[in-house]
Amino acid sequence: MCGIYGFVGNSDASKNIIEGLRRLEYRGYDSWGISVIKNNEIVTVKNTILLNEVKDSSIKSLSGSTIGIGHNRWATHGGVTINNAHPHYSTDKSFVLAQNGIVENYQELKKKLILKGYNFITQTDTEVIVRLVESKLTKTTDLKEALRLAFLDLEGRNTVILLSLKNNQIISIRNGSPLVVGLGKHEIFFASDTLSFADKAEKVIYMNDLEMAENVGDKVHLYDVKNGKELKIKEHKITDANSDINHDGYDHFMLKEIVEQKDTIKAAVAYSEEELKPILDALKKAKHVYTIGAGTASFAAGMIAYYLRKHANINVTELRSYEVESYIHLFNKGDLLIAVSQSGETADTIEAIELAKKKGVKIASIVNMMGSTITRISDLPYFTRSGPEICVASTKAFTAQCAWGLLVALTAVGKYKEVRKDIHSLSESLENYFTDKKFEEIKAVAKKIKNKEHFFVLGRGQNYYISLEGSLKVKEITYKHFEGFAGGELKHGVIALIEKDTPVFV
């Protein structure tokens, strides 16, 4: 997903940016880069090693600056190389730019720019934005205006951040990929999420699509990208009590977050009946109900749909965000769509929600990040309240979303107290399950099968979605072929793939 981080203030920019990028590691990355203004020039350090392996000596050249930007890259256009890592310089080195997203018309733009004499030194679509800004600067001397005009030529969902040497400032534009602005005491933060600066800023500005922000000294100004007019800023107080991120004695974040599920499933169902009433009323009034998500969230959406069908007798259709096209003409005013996302910034899901809203569909959501785009465009936002999920592979947010779905389904049929009691009982069971003895047993199984290449995970009913999610988790972490199936599929073809000694989880 890539991560953006920018800092303007009185303290060392490089230290702030490195810490911010580390807090954005959960988004995944294969390279990174940091640019700061120092001694009247832009100094940049890039690398393809992980940030936690970075030695102080390699970033010593960045220290002493009070303004800069950083980027965690997840390669799309061009290989994982230092040259392709962001930020990218302008030809005269007067500014650098980093980007999240994909410029869908970059090849067309690149051809035009080459014909105009612009040279390209990377394989990225991001460099096209840099050269496009340079071409706009032949018509205006205002860098902010040049960036705005260049951005209007881009197709696709893109968010950019630019560091200007001439003006000693940061300019950023959001469209699709998330961007928020944090406000501290004489400090400004530009980042992909609030979590990355929650311990340093007091307030946050949630940017909407096609909005541009810049700092002038320690003040922030906001503009409409379409017409360049200045916008009124709305500040929100940061109330995230979970801004402290550490391993808490665990070897890594994934293990910590797996164990935290004993608490996060309880937090997800800590809603009163009064708080659930809006979504229960919406479910009763809806002509048709859809659940939607992408990746892990799509399996949680499937589980929620299952619970609503099985326990609440509601006709629910589960959708994948990226395959919603064939359902658009079926959406109608009076329908309800329940969107599921960990970050609340999943681009495919946001696009699907926007299409549904145009049809008059009411939007409910269950996400983990407060203030995120999906929560702000939802009529009925709910939160898993799982705290920061740092590991790229989601665990606790998934089970929290499933627990919330079960809570809604059973509360709809008058079983609110019973489901709360069951979830708390499950939490106690997990407390006894997550022990050193159990982890040693799991390690023994892992060692026994680690050299195998193909694995199958089978489940029925609600466990069908667990089989899909379980196989996704292991393939994400091990890069081995793990495949989840409905148990009934075993005799319809899957069995042909199972040879002697093939591990099968049921």
Written description of the protein model:
With 506 residues, the protein is of the alpha+beta class. The protein has 14 helices and 23 strands. The strands form four sheets. The protein has an eight-stranded antiparallel β-sheet with strand order 3-2-4-1-10-9-11-15, covered by helices on one side. Strands 5-6-7-8-12-13-14 form a seven-stranded antiparallel β-sheet, with helices on one face. A five-stranded parallel β-sheet has the order 17-16-18-19-20, with helices on both faces. α3 packs across α4, α6 (261-268) packs antiparallel against α12 and α11 (396-411) runs antiparallel to α12. It is globular. The model has no long low-confidence stretch (mean pLDDT 93).
Structural class: alpha+beta
Number of strands: 23
**How much β-strand is present in the residues?**
15-25%
Tally of separate helices: 14
On the 0 to 100 scale, the average pLDDT is 93
Described by the principal axes of the CA atoms, the overall outline is globular
How far apart, in Å, are the first and last alpha carbons? Answer: 32 Å
Quick description:
This protein has 506 residues and is α+β, with helices and mostly antiparallel strands.
Jot down its keywords.
506 residues, 23% strand, eight-stranded antiparallel beta sheet, alpha+beta, seven-stranded antiparallel beta sheet
Please write out the topology:
Blueprint: E1 3-8, H1 13-23, E2 31-38, E3 41-47, E4 67-73, E5 88-89, E6 95-101, H2 106-115, H3 126-136, H4 143-152, E7 158-164, E8 169-174, E9 180-183, E10 188-191, E11 203-206, E12 211-216, E13 219-224, E14 230-231, E15 236-237, H5 253-259, H6 261-268, H7 273-285, E16 289-293, H8 296-312, E17 316-320, E18 336-340, H9 347-358, E19 362-367, H10 373-376, E20 380-383, H11 396-411, H12 416-433, H13 436-449, E21 454-459, H14 462-478, E22 481-486, E23 504-505
Helix pairs in contact: 2-3, 3-4, 6-11, 6-12, 8-11, 8-14, 11-12
